[in-house]
Amino acid sequence: MPRSKRKVSDMNSTDEDRYSKRLRNTSNRRNARTEDTSFSQKRCLMWFREYTSTDDPDTLGPDGMEKFCEDIGVEPENVVMLVLAYKMQARQMGFFTKDEWLKGLSELQCDSIQKLQYRLDHLRSLLNDQNIFKSIYRYAYEFARDKDQRSMDMETAKAMLQLLLGKHWPLYTQFSQFLDQSKYKVINKDQWSNILEFSRTIYNDLSNYDVDGAWPVMLDEFVEWLKLARSKSDIS
């Protein structure tokens, strides 16, 4: 038989204390949920100020970025930081301006460490959408390149390619090796965009690569280099 429910008036003092405590805990949890789901731009800005200096209160720089990453438990080199920067439309790697911070975190409805940590999986999941990934990939070029240069230096380009394509493009290792021994010192915007297209459309055996297609010379040279490397491997 189900237990009968006692009225509050039938309880002894100990039971009343327990009952009151349960009511308070339930109320606190409800309030916490309400507080957790509400977004405060003021609270978001106060959080931003924790990472800036009095000399430049409207810019979160490298030192602040290091502390910010430590607080949310993410390595600065983690791809989710690039996705977050994309959400903010940050212009320069290693820096967030006040306006960029508010733009991105207002959209994510995050004004605290805990709320952003809760949204990290959502940010990572955006990389699984091919269209969004393409936008993030293209954004990464402008974000990471030296603004004084029209092209991206090779060291930065390789780091970004590793971050974005290293785990998903089977030919990435070979392409990286090709870049190491090539004459190229920078990657321009057209080359950058076509590398993604190549990684998505060209088979690993290169059988559908059209030498008369509109690919950049860099990728023509990569295909020639890889075919030669494979033929040498077959002979040996």
In short:
This is Defective in cullin neddylation protein. This protein has eleven helices and four strands, in the order H-H-E-H-H-E-H-H-H-E-H-H-E-H-H.
Plain-language structure description:
Helix 7 packs antiparallel against helix 10. The strands form 2 sheets. A two-stranded antiparallel sheet has the order 1-2. By secondary structure, the protein is mainly alpha-helical. Helices cover 63% and strands 3% of the residues. The radius of gyration is 26 Å and the shape is elongated.
How would you sum up the global shape?
elongated
| Largest sheet strand order | 1-2
Largest sheet: 2 strands, antiparallel
Helix content: 55-70%
The number of distinct β-strands equals 4
Structural class, please? mainly alpha
Q: What is the typical, i.e. mean, pLDDT?
A: 88
Q: Number of DSSP helices? A: 11
Based on the coordinates given, report the CATH architecture of the largest domain: Orthogonal Bundle
Would you tell me which CATH topology of the largest domain applies? Recoverin, domain 1
How many discrete domains?
2
Multimerization status: single chain
Radius of gyration: 26 Å
Question: Which short descriptors sum up this protein?
Answer:
236 residues, nucleus, 2 domains, Recoverin, domain 1, mainly alpha, disordered N terminus, two-stranded antiparallel sheet, DCN-prot, 63% helix
Reconstruct the topology from this structure.
Elements: H1 13-37, H2 41-49, E1 59-60, H3 62-72, H4 79-88, E2 96-97, H5 98-108, H6 113-125, H7 130-144, E3 152-153, H8 154-165, H9 172-181, E4 186-187, H10 189-201, H11 217-235
Antiparallel strand pairs: 1-2, 3-4
Helix pairs in contact: 2-5, 4-5, 7-8, 7-10
